[in-house]
Amino acid sequence: MNDFLQLLFDGIALGAMYSMVAIPINLIYSNLRFLQLAQGQVLLLGMYLTLFFLGLSGNNLLLTFVAATLGTVFVAVLMESLVFRPMRDRGSGHFELLVGTIAVGFVLLEATRLTFWSGDARNFPLTLQDKSATVGPVAFNLVQILAILIAVALVLALYLFLHKTHVGIGLRAMAVDERVARLLGVRVRRMALLSFALSGIFGSVGGMLFGLYWGVVTPTMAGPLGFKGMAIVLFAGMGNTWAGLLGALILALAEQFGAAYIGGSFRDLFAFALITVILIVRPTGVLGSDAQ
Amino acid sequence: MTNLYMESLFIVTGLYILMAWSMYLPLSGGLLFSGQPALVSIGAYTAVLLTTRSGVVFPAAVLCGGLVAALVAIPLGLLGIRLASFSLAIVSIGFFEILQVIFLNLEFVGRAQGLRGIPAFTGLPEVWISVLVIGFSISRLDRSRIGRQRLALGTDEVAAQCLGVSAWRSKILTIAIAGFIAGIAGGLYAHYLGYINPTLFGFDLLLLMFSMVIVGGQKTFWGPVLGAALLWLTPEVISFLQQWRLLFYGLLLILFLLFRPKGLLTRRGVGSWSRRLSAIAGRLKGSSSSEEEGSVLQA
């Protein structure tokens, strides 16, 4: 029972971090109708920038966060305005956009690897792992608490932004029908940029959390993370804001319990098993597409 | 030394041409299939296990690798074709991520170490005989009923189905053939390198295969050949690109997607060139025959 509670808590914390990859993929899909497979690499950039600025600012977490976020937002907006928007403008299909995101991911990964660090693992100068506590049977550390709080706060903020502000409603209108939204005066291009800017914010927050949680950064982390984000989005249903969080929780819990009761070395199989089952049983995802 | 180097260049180029063709077949049929790296790895592991552990002769082992890869590809295709077009891409990418995890965790295929000490059976003749045989078969296939059905599906699926093309059968067949070619390429590749491990068949290989097909031209038979030769040989010739190889492929791919998504060779382009060539050939034939007539008359 104690093990169960511990696994449950670890799973929820991990799910909160996975949602940092899944939510932006979901957001971009619902607004622009393509799967952004480079989100894992955006998160990796966030991780490296966090590491870099932590060194510069002498472990000042707040300053680092601001600088890293500016960096990832800039890169995400650059991706959209240099590659994805021109591609959509010339009428590229699903396949071209999909390959485009893979290519952009590679460029980002290689650029990060070649400019920042030669590809070896890097230790985070600051880990919050040691700041831990035990409540009853459950041991937890500061990063996990931080991850859960930040994830809930970000999703809530995103929800309020999408539903209560003028700009957010415009964004949702665009998700429903781009042409009509444009006719009603929604600035579609700006909205697309905004979606990518938001994905940059999630990238830097996610990168920071994963960096602090793992305490170590290598370039090879990006691929599996991006893939898991995509699996979560496919599993939970595309174009649904809450689905990202819910799907991330389900995947993380499945991984935690699966690793504990079946075997740790196969934990990366669960993401694939999830999407395979769901695509056979219910191709639109558990919550259905566009159930906004 | 330089001879050996040239030989290895041509061997690898031939192997990449095979891989690019296995990418071209589904794409020209409108199928966004991207599990080829996994199928290459299946072919490689099967062939290596057969030659090193069971003592099967090399050509038979490579063929078996191809067949196993085709057999694995079929259920993937079955799973993927009932979904929206890009779900197949996702499922197949997921499949090779998962296959890597499996290979990394299975003791009898050496986990992360992979398999080493594979006898170097693959030489220039083996590779290029395979390329010629498979290339000839594909070009015949493209002109056959099956190939035309595939190309029709790639152009307009609904229209093709209205004309009585069984999309289901054609797609499964296409994916199986692509799997077979990928498996053959894998078997040959393993016996050229002398070692295999799961990281050889990851996202890097997928990026390379995508780039070859898109740069060369995704809808023509010669496109992948051109793309494979161009993309593999350029960093070899311009040596400072070596270290930046993946960055170079990624940037090239983005540039082509932005400015020439159909690739260097398009079906219309190839068509007009072959028409022009046959016109020239016809004229030559015509002139030579008139000369003959002339000479006959003179005589």
Main sheet makeup of chain B: none
* Quaternary: heterodimer
Q: Give the overall shape of chain B, derived from the CA principal axes.
A: globular
Provide the low-confidence segments of chain A as ranges.
none
Features:
heterodimer; A: 292 residues; mainly alpha; 11 helices; B: 299 residues; 12 helices; globular; disordered C terminus
What does this entry look like structurally?
The complex is a heterodimer of chains A (292) and B (299). With 292 residues, chain A is mainly alpha-helical. Chain A has helices at residues 2-32, 39-57, 61-89, 94-115, 142-164, 166-176, 178-183, 188-214, 222-236, 241-261, 269-281; strands spanning 122-123, 132-135, 138-141, 216-217. In chain A, strands 1-4 form a two-stranded antiparallel ribbon. In chain A, strands 2-3 form a two-stranded antiparallel ribbon. Chain B is mostly helical and 299 residues long. Chain B has helices spanning 2-28, 36-53, 58-81, 85-105, 124-143, 145-155, 157-162, 167-193, 203-216, 222-237, 245-259, 267-298. In chain B, helix 1 (2-28) runs parallel beside helix 5 (124-143) and helix 5 crosses helix 6.
In short:
The complex is a heterodimer of chains A (292) and B (299). Chain A is built from 11 helices and 4 strands.
Task: Set out the fold topology.
The complex is a heterodimer of chains A (292) and B (299).
Chain A: H1 2-32, H2 39-57, H3 61-89, H4 94-115, E1 122-123, E2 132-135, E3 138-141, H5 142-164, H6 166-176, H7 178-183, H8 188-214, E4 216-217, H9 222-236, H10 241-261, H11 269-281
Antiparallel strand pairs in A: 1-4, 2-3
Chain B: H1 2-28, H2 36-53, H3 58-81, H4 85-105, H5 124-143, H6 145-155, H7 157-162, H8 167-193, H9 203-216, H10 222-237, H11 245-259, H12 267-298
